[in-house]
Amino acid sequence: MSVGEFQFEEPLVELRRRIEELEGFPAGSGHDREIERLRGELRSRTRQVYGRLNRWQKTLVARHPDRPYTLDYVAALMEDWIEIHGDRLFADDRAITAGFARFRGRSVAVIGHQKGRGTKERIARNFGQPRPEGYRKALRVMKLAERFGRPVLTFVDTAGAFPGLDAEERGQAEAIARNLLEMAQLRVPVIVTITGEGGSGGALALGVGDRVLILEYAVYSVISPEGCAAILWKDQERKAQAAEAMRITAPDLADLAVVDEVIEEPLGGAHVAPDEAAKRVGEALARTLAELEGLPIDRLLEERYRRFRALGVCRED
Fold this sequence. Notes:
Elements: H1 10-23, H2 32-51, H3 55-62, H4 70-77, E1 79-83, E2 96-103, E3 106-113, H5 118-124, H6 132-147, E4 152-158, H7 165-169, H8 172-185, E5 190-199, H9 200-204, E6 211-215, E7 219-221, H10 225-233, H11 239-246, H12 250-255, E8 261-263, H13 274-293, H14 297-309
Parallel strand pairs: 3-4, 4-5, 5-6, 5-7, 6-8
Antiparallel strand pairs: 1-2, 2-3
Helix pairs in contact: 1-2, 3-11, 4-13, 6-8, 10-11
């Protein structure tokens, strides 16, 4: 099985290979009808496979290396992108990308995790796991956005904040806590989009907003299924059981009112058709932004406060 393929996708792999082979023949070679038949069969089987994924399998989809990352959404949806580097305290953390752009005629701030593609870039971006300077860079851009009245769009996709000794020495916990505090008080609209894996405080440090959107196969949790299994049962191999118990998928989170909207992904996941996935994200962002911009800022802040205060409340019938 090659990189980016899952065991549950095995019924689809051979179909994709056959389609690619036939597409390699010159146009007019008489294979068009067979290609269309195979594409139809692929769509049908993909619908069947993805229609019965369990929570652990959805977690694997959320981690797929070909899913669009923040800069992919910037390239597809934004114009006049200007990236801001450094936290003016220590360094520039490439695990977080941040800057300003124009989105459908609006000037916005864009901040998000960036995992990187290929071994070299993934190492340079620390596999999307930020250190404190990444969160402080993000906060620097947020405060600039607030000063100039620009809405903030964040894209969340990280396994978590980097747990290394150097990050702890430079105040990882304080940097995350500071972002939570400041984001709760930002006097501009804030829209959070969970695009892949939203892990722990490393995700939440970009996750306090007026609206939280999530892609259909993304996940959002206080700990990874592997970490949960290791703590509860001293056995990471029980990760699938942990994922079921944690209820970390988009439908679960919508039911719990942790997220406000689930964005449907293209058939087979965002990694199959990243341009279409970006288009759907753009439509959701534009609709949500138009709604938020019509609200007085004091009401926006009050609703933001109430939204997060209500999380975790449950009633016994």
